[in-house]
Amino acid sequence: MQLVWSCMLSRGKVSVLLFFLLSNALVRAGSPQSAGKEKRRALRLFQKGDYGKAAHGFQNEIEKGTSDTESYYYLGVSRLRSGDFQGALEALERFVKEVPESSEGWLNLGVVYFALQRFDNAIRAFHSSLQLDAEQPLANKMLGRVYVATEKHALAERAFVRAMELDRQDFQSPYLLGRLYQTVDRLVEAARYLEESARLNPNSVRAFSFLGAVYYALGRDSEAAQTLRKAVELNASSPSPDFVPHLEYGIYLQRTGHLKESVQQLRKAVALNPRTVEAYFELAKTLYRLEQLAEARKFLEEAISIDAADPRLHYLLGRVCYEQGDVQCGHRHMVLSESHRK
Q: What is the pTM assigned to this prediction?
C-alpha cells in the first residue's frame, strides 16, 4: 500500500514537496541599504515572502536600466516561488550566464528545470551548483528527486544519502530516502528511514502516513493502524491539512475490511485534493465493494476527466457499468482500459 511518487510530480503538475524543499533554497542575503529605492522596496517584499509583488519590483528596476546583475537573480527566485516558472527560467538563465560562479544561481535554475520537467537540464544545473559548493544538502536532495523522476534509483539513493550526511538534523532527506525504498519494495529500509524522519519532525504527517503504509506492507498491522491514526490526528491540527493521511488510512481500512470507515477517510482525501486521481480511484473501489454503484460511477467519471489515460479507471468503470446493466458503457471502457495498457 503506497502512494506513488507521481503524487509529488505528476503529469505536468509540480509537487507540494517541491515547494516544501524551496522553503530552504539558498537565497543570497540582499542589502536594502546599498540598493536603489525600487530595489530596496522589492527586497523588503521578498524578505516578507510577498514574491509576486517583489518580482514586479525587480522587473521595474531592470526595465529602468538601473539594476545590477543581482536583480535578475532575485527576479528569478521571486518568480519561481510565485509559480511563474517560465519567467523564472528567463531571469535565472540570464543570471548564471553573467555570474556562472554562483552556486545559488545554478541551484535555483535547476529547481526551475525540475518544475518544467526538463530533467537533463536540471541534472546539469545541480551538478554545476555542487561543483561550486559540494556541501549543499538541498542540491543533493533535488538531484535525487530528478533521478527518482527519471527512474535512476541507484543515483537517487546516492544523492539522498549524501544529503543526509551533510545535515543529520534534516528530516526531509531520510523521508525522501524512505519513500525511495518504499517505491522499490525495500520495505525494511523504508521503515527505518521514515521512522528517522518522523523522529526528527514529530509533526510530519506524510512521514507518519507512509510509515503506516510500510508497516502494513510488512505485516505489522497494529503498528500500521496506530501510525496512520496518528497521521490523521496530526493532520486535523494542521493549518494546511494534507490529503495523504486520509488517503493512506482509507486504503488501510479498505484492505482490512472496514469499508464504511474507509469511505469516510477517502471522501476527506477527495475534498482536500479534488485533483488527485488516486483518491477518486480508491473511493470508487470501496463504494463498488459496498455495491453503491451510482456513486462509484460518478467518482470514476470525475477521475477520468482528470486523467483519461489511466487504465485502472476504465477497467473499474467498465465493471460498474456492466453491473448496472449498461453493456455499451461497460464494453467501451473495457476496450479503453486495454488500449491504455499497451
A: 0.87
